[in-house]
Amino acid sequence: MTEGITIGQAAAFAAVTVKTIRHYHKNGLIAEPRRDTSGYRRYGTADLLRLVQVRTLAGAGVPLAEVGTVLDADPDTFAAALVDVEQSLTSRIDELIARRETLRRLAHGDRVLLPERALALLDRMPALGFTADDVTTAREGLILVRALMPEGLDDYLSQVEHGLDDPRHVAMIRLTWAAGNWHPDDPRIEELADEMASHFLADPSLLPTLTGLRSREDGAARHDLLTRHGEDRRPAWTRLTALIQERMRSAGVSIP
């Protein structure tokens, strides 16, 4: 009987593929065994043992580039290397768990894009009389605020929370949002602009501001994106917003 086993047998005994063994050879993890008289490589017990060791370490998460060093190390170095691998695996596991949680949250739509404080505001809106479209617009707006003004999001949320605690303010905002569906030339827009300007002048704290953009060089561009959000779906907002700002500036209020 020919001494040793073929590469196919070695692969079967070690529970790997022939391609994997050849990859190990290419990376110097296993020395290529001698050939028999027919030109076939024959794997002995030492080769099979090394193959099983390499497969086990690679399967445990040791990077292939480090497997050879770990196997050839003294016991203390071997143990220390395995500790490093364990720490690396733990970090990867934590990362995978975080990704899984993100996927689970994504099952609820784009709520994953907002902090819990912002989600709590959105959850309050239906009970205050806002429509589903209103909530969608608000959610999109908050996502944009977080992206374009991250350092000012908490202050902005505080302003919105303050406004939602005022019943008259809530009624005024609902009317303003409903007016977005009017025709831009609707004469009621002029009247509503007067009423909204008076409302904010009576209590400026109810006017959500984007003060976090003032220190940015591109603050004007970011401000324009935020204030124009939703205008494509509610075209009357463009005129209404301009009229409200015009009246506020005439009263001496600084509007960016």
Descriptive terms for the model:
63% helix; mainly alpha; rod-shaped; 256 residues; single chain
H/E element order = HHHHHHHHHHHH
User: Helix fraction?
Assistant: 55-70%
**Percentage of residues in strands:** under 5%
Low-confidence stretches: none
Anisotropy-based shape:
rod-shaped
Please give the radius of gyration in angstroms. Answer: 33 Å
Oligomeric status: single chain
Task: Report on the biggest sheet.
Answer: none
Mean pLDDT: 86
How many β-strand runs?
A: 0
Task: Report what the structure shows.
By secondary structure, the protein is an all-alpha fold. The protein is 63% helix and 0% strand. The chain has 12 helices and no strands. The protein has helices at residues 7-14, 18-26, 45-59, 64-71, 75-106, 116-124, 132-148, 153-164, 167-179, 188-202, 219-227, 236-250. The model has no long low-confidence stretch (mean pLDDT 86).
Topology:
Elements lengths: L6 H8 L3 H9 L18 H15 L4 H8 L3 H32 L9 H9 L7 H17 L4 H12 L2 H13 L8 H15 L16 H9 L8 H15 L6
Helix pairs in contact: 3-4, 6-7, 7-11, 9-10, 10-12
Q: What is this entry, summarized?
A:
With 256 residues, the protein is an all-alpha fold. Helix content is 63%, strand content 0%. It is rod-shaped, with a radius of gyration of 33 Å.
